[in-house]
Write a structure and sequence with these properties.
Blueprint (H helix, E strand, L loop, with lengths): L4 E7 L3 H12 L7 E7 L5 H8 L4 E5 L4 H12 L4 E5 L3 E3 L3 H6 L7 E9 L5 E3 L2 E3 L5 E3 L14 E3 L6 E5 H7 L11 H11 L3 E12 L9 H19 L5 H22 L2 H21 L6 H4 L8 E3 L9
Parallel strand pairs: 1-2, 1-4, 2-3, 6-12
Antiparallel strand pairs: 4-11, 5-12, 6-7, 6-11, 8-9, 10-12, 10-13
Helix pairs in contact: 5-6, 6-7, 7-9, 8-9
Length: 319
Amino acid sequence: MKSEIDLIIPSWNGRRLLEECLRSVASQSRRPETILVVDNGSTDGTAEYLRSEWPAVRLLSLSRNAGFAGAVQAGIEASTAPLVALLNNDARPEPEWLVSLEKAFAWPQVGACASLILTPEPRVESGGIGFSHFGVGFRLFEGSSPDTMPSGFSEVFGASGGAVMYRRRALLQAHGFDITFFAQDEDIDLAFRLRYAGYTCLLNPDARVIHLGGRTLRREPNLLLSLAQRNLEWAFWLNFPPWTWPIWGTVHTGYQALSLLRHLLKGNGLIVAKAKAEALSTLPAQLRRRRVPTGFTSAVLPWLGRSSRVWALPRDESQ
């Protein structure tokens, strides 16, 4: 049964990127019911451009830059469709992108479907996200040729927020994106909570998107590094229950100490050290506002360090 789809595109001073992005969306074989651009307080005339050139596109203007997490969560709260797709403004989906993602939701236990995100070369940038035994997220199939990807659906730990479709019901049960992350690893954090809520994530390699590559945060590389290093700590400590800390917390801390040493040798150790200090100083407040996760052994443990597995459950057409 076909469900309505709302497509959310966050943008911050991305007017020059939106035209090609929206043209790619307009060429979809399956059009979304609503295209919603969430403008993160841009000063480059984005709002005026959209009102003039794309009047059918719904615009949600935020008064300040709320980051990726804040923008997409505002879009989710402003939308109504049972299926919600997210797309970076520097991503160019192929014509069958939306219809390929939609197919995954014939299974009622699917909460998210990941895209095969490609570089312009093309090589695989991400075929979903995994989470290692060291307590850090990683991109699945990164660097592979798209021709080597297995056909059909595979189950993966989670999906990159840059090109993904979610079931609204699953988002509500998992409490959506955590806006305190601002940007970086907010999709990993959500992947944990979707699994704890009883949902799984599929990858459909036919849902292909060309990603031009971090055109927004690349303007501020130090901020990108700081957010990534702070948020990977939050993603770990918020989603591993306390009883796991004596083992996995020790492994994670040791791995991060080695990572800090590598960054010191590269000359950006001070940025990383400050990010870690911020993460640890704010962690008690973060833990107080989040429920202690339950179900780690069944929902998360089997996926630590794993890439994917072929999806072989029987088809269920109910939504």
